[in-house]
Design goal:
single chain; alpha+beta
Length: about 240
């Protein structure tokens, strides 16, 4: 079986586009000569985002304070278990350049590390540990606060493999039953028929991509799945209190 190479550090420019499925089909047809399916093209992703009870980390990110950090645990397992492979990831932004640091572990070890500071053999990346310590000092009592899951289709450049395009659909979120093993369910993040197309490049867009985006009149959007989920949760709770 082909062994998947695991990359632990990323630096790239990421831009998101919220589009409908009809536009996506036309885009995929036009981009087909320049993109190929990724080695692991189709995946099911489940994320748990860590925050404190006041959601201070995501509030700071929305307000563009500091490095706009997000701390999450991600798995590609379709049916996550207590011992499945997960990635503990820290995402940061400086200007419009995104940075991601991660290590490979399991759900129990990650939660023990974030909540209690317990370190085992899987919590071995010094950069990730240092970044987490900074966040733990800034945001006290971090814990699992939000689950976000979706289906992803991934493509990469035919000539430049560092150019990546991903499409996320069937995005669901919840702020209860915040465990990987609880399953994939919750409230829809987007309107029916909408998907998120994200373009990830190490620098400028290749000319063919810039030309296609201009032809379709697409404008990138500042969009965070966790930020959107938090705001929708806050709005829903506000309506519940008023009623």
């Amino acid at each position: 079986m082909k062994q998947k190479k695991i990359q632990t550090n990323f630096q790239r420019i990421e831009t998101k586009y919220i589009i409908d499925r009809a536009t996506l089909e036309r885009l995929e047809a036009v981009m087909a000569p320049y993109l190929i399916a990724d080695d692991y093209a189709r995946s099911t992703i489940t994320n748990i985002y860590f925050d404190n009870d006041d959601f201070q980390m995501i509030q700071d990110s929305i307000a563009r304070k500091g490095g706009r950090e997000k701390l999450r645990m991600r798995t590609y397992a379709e049916q996550p278990t207590d011992d499945c492979q997960v990635f503990l990831e820290i995402k940061k932004k400086s200007e419009e350049v995104g940075f991601k640091y991660r290590l490979v572990s399991n759900p129990v070890s990650v939660v023990n590390f974030i909540e209690n500071g317990l370190v085992d053999a899987t919590i071995s990346d010094d950069r990730v540990k240092a970044e987490v310590v900074v966040l733990q000092e800034r945001y006290l009592d971090l814990k699992p606060k939000m689950v976000i899951s979706y289906d992803r289709y991934s493509m990469k450049g035919l000539e430049d493999k560092k150019v990546r395009v991903t499409v996320d659909s069937n995005i669901r979120y919840r702020d209860y039953d915040v465990e990987l093993t609880s399953g994939r369910y919750g409230w829809p993040l987007l309107e029916d028929g909408k998907v998120i197309m994200e373009i990830k490049v190490p620098g400028q867009y290749p000319q063919w991509m810039a030309d296609i985006l201009n032809k379709f009149g697409l404008m990138d959007q500042s969009f965070s799945k966790y930020g959107k989920a938090y705001l929708q949760t806050k709005e829903r709770l506000s309506h519940t209190v008023k009623s």
